[in-house]
Amino acid sequence: MWAILVLLVAILSIIILLLMFQFIDPLKTKWYVTFFVFLGWGMSFAIPILLPIDISSSLFDKCVEQQNKVCEEPFTYIDKKTLVILWNLLYWGTTILCWTAIPFLQSYCSAGDFHILERIKTSLRENIIFYLVVGFVCGIFLILFLIWNENGDWLGIAIAAANAWGLIMVIGMMGYGIVAVPARLIKNISLKHYLNSLYSDINDLTEEHEEEEGILSELITLVKKADEIIPITDPMRKCVLIIINEIDPKRYEATEPSRDFVKSYENLSELHANIQFQQLKVKQIFYTLHSNVDQVLKYENINSNKAPLFQRIYFNIIKKIVSIIALILFIIYSLTVFSSELLLPFNLPILSPLYYIIQSIESSAFLLLIVITVFVIYIAWCVYQTLISMKLFDYYQLFNNRLSDPGSMLFSAAYLCRLCAPLALNILHMIKFDGIHFNGTQTAFQSVMSSMEDIPFFGQNSFNDFFPVCIVIVSAFSLLNHFIPIPLIFNSILKFFGVRDHNKLTTAQKIKRGKYISQIFYTRYADYMFTLNASTHLLKQKDD
Domains of the chain: which residue ranges? Predict the structure, then answer.
C-alpha cells in the first residue's frame, strides 16, 4: 500500500513540475510562489488519481463484507482508514490554502511597496477588508439558515455552502470544457483552419501589443515627472530610483515627462506596481506573438511542401489519424458526461449512462479502475483546462513559454483548490455512489463530507443533483462560441437593426492582416540573419 502511495506521489510531482515549467520557471520564480503553486496544483491534481482508487477500494471492501462471492482485490487497494486520512488532508489542506495562504501571497506579490514590511501590511489590509465583507454577508445568511434549520450543524453548513459555490464553478467550467476540448481538435485537424486561427491570433496580439505599449509609455511619463519633482534629498528619492532601474534606459531617456504627478508614498507604490505589471504584460504579449509567428512559419513550410519529408508525413498523415481517433473518443466521453449530468435528477428509473457503465464492469477490479480513471481524468481535464486557458480581464491569464506572472499562477492554484471537493462529489453523484446503489457502498470521501448531507437544500437529493442540469446552458453557449462566435451573432443582430461598427474587423480581414504581419516578421528575421551571417564572415576574415 505504501509503495503505491509513494509511486503515485512521485508520478504526480513529475506531472505538476512539467506543467509548471510551461508557465513559469520554478528556479527563477520566488521560492514561496513556486512552493504554494506546486502545493495547490498537486492537491488539485490528486483528485483524478485518488478518487478512482477510493471507488474501487470501497467496492472491494463491500464485496468482502457480503462474503457471498469471490472478490477481486484492486492492485491499487488502500484501506478506508488511510483513505479517510488522505481525503481529510486534501480537503482541509485545499481549504486553508485557497482561503488564507494563497490570497495573502497574491496581494503580497502584486503590491508595489518598496519594503517587505510595507508589502505585508498592504497584503493584510486588502485581505482583511475582503474577509470582513465576505464574513458579514456569510454571517447574515448563516444566522438565517440556522434559524430555519433546527439541526444547527455549523460545520455541515459551512462545507455545504463552500461545495455549492464550488459546484457552480465546476458545472460552468465543465460545460465549457466538454465542448472546447473536442472543438479544438476539430479546428486543428485541418492545417488550413489552424493557420487561419494563427493569423487571426497574430492580428489580435499585434493590436493588443500596441495598446499595452501605449499604456506603458503613459506610465513611464509619470515616472519621469516623479523623477523631476522629487529631489535627491527627499527620502522618497530611493523609491523613484528603484522604479527607474526597472525601466529600459533608452526608452526612459526618450520619454517626455507627464504634466501632473502628486508626490506621495502611496502614489509611488501604486505606480511601481503598475509599471511592473505593465512591463510584464507587454513582454508576455510580445513573446506570445513571436511564438505564433514561428508556428505560422513552420506550418506554412509544411503546407507548401518545403519542410522535411518526415515532418510532412507526421503532420499530414500520422497526426491527422491520431487526432481523428482522439476526436471520436473525446466526443463519446463528452456526450457521456453531458448526458450523465443532464439526467442526474432522475432516480426512478436511473438514466445516468456512467452509472450503467460502472455497474456493468463492477466485477472486474482492473477494468473498473481503468474505466473510472479515464473518465475522471477526462472530466478533470475539461474543468482544469478551462480554468488554465481562461482570461479574466487584466487580472488573470496564464502564458506559455514561462511568462506567467506570480499573481496569475497563485490565482489558478487557489481556484483549483476550490474545485477539488465539488468536482469529486459531482462525479460520485453522476455514477450514483450515494450510499443506496452499488449495494449501499460509500466511499471514504463521502465519509469525510457526510456532515453536509443532512443540510436542507444543499444536502443529498437537492442542489447537488438538480443544479448540474444547468450544464445544458453553458454547453450551448460554448458550442455557439466555438463554431458561430457570440460576437459575430451580436454584430449580425446589430446589422439587422442598421447599426454597424466600422472599426470592427471581420474574420477574413483579421486573417489577411495576420498573414501580412507574419510576412513582415519573416522579412525582418531574414534581414537580421543575413546581417548576422555577413558580420560573422567578416570577423572570420579579419581573424585570418
Answer: 2-182+316-480
Cell numbers given for 365: 477490479
- The residues, ordered by sequence, that sit 6+ positions from 443 with a Cβ below 8 Å of its Cβ are 54, 55, 58, 83, 428, 433
CB 203 within 8 A of CB 505: yes
pLDDT band at 379 (very low <50, low <70, confident <90, very high): very high
Q: Is the dihedral of CA 426, 76, 363, 69 positive or negative?
A: negative
- DSSP-derived secondary structure letter, 361: T
- Greatest CA separation found in the chain? 94
pLDDT at 540 (0 to 100): 45
Q: Residue 392: in which H helix or E strand, if any?
A: strand 391-392
Q: Compute CA distances 246 → 151, 186, 404, whole Å.
A: 58, 44, 18
Please choose, from the candidates 492, 513, 413, 458, the residue with its C-alpha nearest in 3D space to the C-alpha of residue 35: 413
183 Cβ neighbours under 8 A, 6+ residues apart? 478, 479, 482, 483
Given a contact cutoff of 8 angstroms between Cβ atoms, the answer to whether 85 and 77 are in contact is no
Upper half-sphere CA count for residue 226 (Cβ side, 13 Å): 27
Inter-residue contact 223 to 244 (CB < 8 Å): yes
Q: What is the DSSP secondary structure assignment for residue 256, as one 8-state letter?
A: P
Task: From 117, 105, 124, 123, select the one nearest 34 (Cα to Cα).
Answer: 105
Of 133, 490, 189, 465, nearest in space to 323 by CA:
189
Report the candidate in 294, 300, 318 with the shortest Cα–Cα distance to residue 192.
300
C-alpha cell at 223: 515616472
Alpha-carbon dihedral 320, 323, 324, 326, rounded to 10 degrees = 160
Cα angle 224, 230, 232; round to 5: 110
Tell me the mean pLDDT in the region 371-391.
89
Whether the bond into 456 is cis, omega within 30 of 0: no
* Of 14 and 149, more confident: 14
DSSP string, 398-442: --TTTT--HHHHHHHHHHHHHHHHHHHHHHHHHTT-SSSHHHH--
Neighbours of 538 (CB within 10 A): 10
Nearest 10 degrees: CA dihedral of 416, 420, 425, 430?
50
pLDDT one-digit tens code per residue, 327-354: 999 999 999 999 988 888 877 777 788 8
At 451 the pLDDT is 60
pLDDT confidence band for 543 (50 / 70 / 90):
very low
